[in-house]
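Dear Dr. H.,

I hope your travels went smoothly. While you were away I took the liberty of generating a structure for the chain from your last submission, since the lab meeting agenda had it listed for discussion. I wanted you to have the full record in hand beforehand rather than looking at slides cold. The sequence, exactly as received, is reproduced here:
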Amino acid sequence: MTLQRKYIKLFFVLLPFLLVFLAEAIQNFNKSLSTQLKLAALIYMLLYALMHKINKNLFTLLIILIVVMGMHLIHPYNWHAAIEEMLRYFFPLVVLLYGYSIRKWASTLILLFIYFVIINDLWQIINYINWIRGVDQWFYFHTPDGIPYYNATMGILRASGLVVFFSLFAFMNAVAYFLIYFYYHGKYRKWFLAITIISIFASFSYKTIGAFLFVLFLLYENKIKIISAFVVLLTLGTIMFPQKSSEIVQNIALRIRLYITEGNSVRAESYRMMAKHTKLFLGEGLGTFGGAASTKYHSPLYKQWHFNWYNTPWLATTDTYYPHLFIELGLVGALLYLLFLLYPIINRMSVQKQKIIYVIYFLLFFEGLFSFSINHLGYLMSSLIWIYPLYNLIKNNIETVTAHE
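The corresponding predicted structure, in token form, is as follows:
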């Protein structure tokens, strides 16, 4: 393959990544175009996957799921809601299929993803400078009166880089950290690892920080060293920034109270509904609970079940994926759906060999406890897309990613 031809092929492999992350960057000022770009990326990935070699078992599971989804289309409360939600359910399935079709590009793609994340992290410096200067930045939200506002914690702008959403920014950095840790051994490895860690904490995305620290603790053999370093940093932070440290503790305590001990939040309410209303076989149907379609088309379940929105009527979703999945598809349908997503790890490889795969699954599925990451293309193109490419590296005993295939 000539160099020119290789670059042309690489462009077509990268195209859905470009579309999805561009869509993330413009979502706050052109939501319509952002949605169109994501839809175009989804269609492109499906067509690309169908035109290339497909994993037969994966495809068989997909057909079964289509049948299950079809059963949930019988007499929906609203056809538009059902079709829209069905489309979202296919997001991770299409990404997995596409990941399988581009698995041989693993090294180059992972390397480019790492560089993209680092560029995002460095761009955040510009965001901070403009924030301090009081500049109205492209990713700010605006009230109906045109007044700009942004995501902040304790008065500090939450890091979001070029992808606009602080939670996605943190998630991308967490995935990138472990890709660097396992597969990148270049000159700036330590710098890259440090930059991703700083960026994760700068996002103030508590769920990602918690998941990241948990995985880090499990992976590192010298756990005493990790605990000691954490205690030292915590102590220094408390001494140097006592007020901010106190506010962080209060924020964490508030989240524990809202989501766990008292459960006075929409997230906690959605899990109560899940425990109470999940059916064994067919669920309540597509677009009926939790997702964007259910609120957009006014699902009757919320009123019927006296769902408590805790004075947050502006929320488009319940911000919890699993109640949405289990209530809409039922226990059997939801488990079958999760089986499809987890199918790649059903193999004869040792856990030791596929640690990175387990890490990525954990980060994505943990995120789903508090968000809709599992049907968000930005999250999926930062995680699930790597499953089959990583297996390609593992099977070929490739331990370092390079730009040469």
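Two observations you may find useful: DSSP finds 17 helices and four strands in the chain. The first strand starts at residue 141 and ends at 142.

With kind regards,
E. W.
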